[in-house]
Amino acid sequence: MPSALPNQDCELKKVIQKYLEYLEVEKGASRLTVRNYTHYLSSFCKWLDLQGIKPNLEDISPELVRQYRIFLSRQTDGKGKFLSKKTQGYYVIALRSLLRWLLKNDFDVMSPDKIDLPKIEERQVKFLTGEQVDRLLNAPSLSNINGKRDKAILEVLFSSGLRVSELVKLDRDKVGLERREFGIVGKGGRARVVFLSRRAAEWLDNYLKARKDNFKPLFIRHAKTSNTEREIKSHEDSGENMRLSARSVQRIIKKYARKISLPVDVTPHVLRHSFATDLLMAGADIRSVQEMLGHKNIQTTQIYTHVTHRHLREVYEKYHDKDS
Length: 324
Hints:
Blueprint: H1 11-25, H2 31-50, H3 62-73, H4 85-104, H5 130-137, H6 145-160, H7 164-167, E1 181-185, E2 191-195, H8 198-210, H9 226-234, H10 246-259, H11 268-281, H12 286-293, H13 298-301, H14 305-319
Antiparallel strand pairs: 1-2
Helix pairs in contact: 1-2, 2-4, 6-8, 6-11
């Protein structure tokens, strides 16, 4: 359950609490999303309290929101830097989402369309070139079980475009290696089909055949000492204690990126970007890529069109824009 707002003694704070419960229970938002929305909306309530305004629904007006946005633009983070336009936007998005939910539930509040989002610079997408992907995928040593696992992780991430949170939730019995496809429930509770390349399926199969356990999780921590081996045996029934975390996968990828001296700060999401740009550069249509990435809105997928447009220019200059 989301944490309760402090001093929950007014209409606004009560409806915010109901909205947070809606996000968690009905919309199926992740714990991180609920936590972030709790923070953004609590900040709005605290600002109202500081202004001496009794925070009821009828107090939310375009002028009040304007004053709040001025307040946000002058706020600093823990390092003394002003909040970025992007961060300010998160606070505004949370407020607009709340108003939209209130209208849907027949509350008399201002229209969320009266709140414009701050203009921010176009998102820069980091991705690896084909040569960089090959080097990264070949970086793990295959002489031990950890190397085989890491190789399988890298291959699966680039082959599928999975989010790291989706990857670490995978179980062995849910991944079909023969058909090289399986279903997952991703961000926002949206179900989709995920595909594996033959290469990724083979490396994943090699890793699983090298394992000596019956654990349910697809990717796990592996023993390095006899004490760890005893720990594994003590948890043989569930195996959940041995499941890799998202943070562990992030560290694994950074380790191999440093090993081969990649100039890009590589994360699991960079591999997801690389998956998407590879598809688009090969001629895939953006709607299909949207489905494979599990994006709710096509606008999210369109960040990659800038990358592919740049690729088209490179092709043009190489093959057509030549001196006579």
